[in-house]
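C-ALPHA CELLS:
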Amino acid sequence: MSDHQHESDYQSQVEELERESATAARLFDVRRIIGGLFVVYGVIVTIAGLTATEADLKKAQDININLWTGLGMLALGVFFLVWLKLRPTAVPTPPLPADPDGPGEDPAGEPGTSGRG
C-alpha cells in the first residue's frame, strides 16, 4: 500500500469518528436529559395532584401542592426542550490543515506565491 492509501484510510476513519462524536454530543446534551426527566416526573406529579383526595388537601392546608409542583416541573421541562430546539448544540469543527499546494507565502515572504519557479 502506498502512503497515499494509508493517509486516505486514516482520513476516512477520522471523518467517521467526527460524525459519531457530533451525533453523541447532540444525543447526550444535558438539556435533553434534564428536560425529559422534568417532563416525565412533571406528568406523574400532576396526575397525583389531579387525583388528590380531601384528606391529601387537608394535610397541605388546602393547597394542592402536587398539582402546582407538577405543573412547575412540566413548565421547566418544556423550557429545556424548547431551548434545545431553538439553540441546538454547535458541534466544533476541526481546524482545516494547511494546504501545501495552495496559495501561501514563499520563503521570501511574498504572499500568493508558492516559491516554485
Observations:
- Residues 3-27 form the longest helix (25 residues).
- The two ends are 32 Å apart (CA to CA).
